[in-house]
Amino acid sequence: MSTPVTTLPNSLVEIQKRIADGKITWAGPLIMLSSRAIIGLITTALVATIFFRGSVDPWAAAYPWWRVFCALIGLGLIPLYFLVRKEGITIPDLGSFSHRSWKR
């Protein structure tokens, strides 16, 4: 008795189907690549402007706040949630793997 072969949600075949259906475009990857950098710049600018307005070099004065910037840059992953929903998959599907090959 053989088990039916199922394709993983993020396999090449499934990705090609989603591209053909128009669910995957270049906009998604471009948004993901740029959103984190843009949020980092905006966060740094806000901290430098709000808290270090009177400083001689506000950008340098804001540097010790890098932990806050890193935490807020994580907000750049929010578009990922909407992009995978548009594709019809979930975030765990991005790291999908075959249980058969993993249990060896």
How would you characterize the overall build of this protein?
This protein is mainly alpha-helical and 104 residues long. The protein has helices spanning 12-20, 27-51, 58-62, 66-73, 78-87, 91-94, 99-102. Helix 2 (27-51) runs antiparallel to helix 4. The radius of gyration is 21 Å and the shape is elongated. The mean pLDDT is 80.
Summarize the structure.
The chain has 104 residues and is an all-alpha fold. It is built from seven helices and no strands.
Task: Name its key features.
104 residues, mainly alpha, 7 helices, 62% helix
Task: Note the run of SSEs as H and E.
Answer: HHHHHHH
Q: What's the quaternary structure here? A: single chain
Envelope shape = elongated
Contiguous helical run count: 7
Write down the Rg. Answer: 21 Å
What share of the residues does DSSP label as strand, in percent? under 5%
Low-confidence stretches: none
Total beta-strand segments: 0
Structural class: mainly alpha
Q: Distance between the terminal alpha carbons, to the nearest Å?
A: 20 Å
Residue-averaged pLDDT: 80
Give the helix proportion (percent range): 55-70%
> What kind of sheet is the major sheet?
none
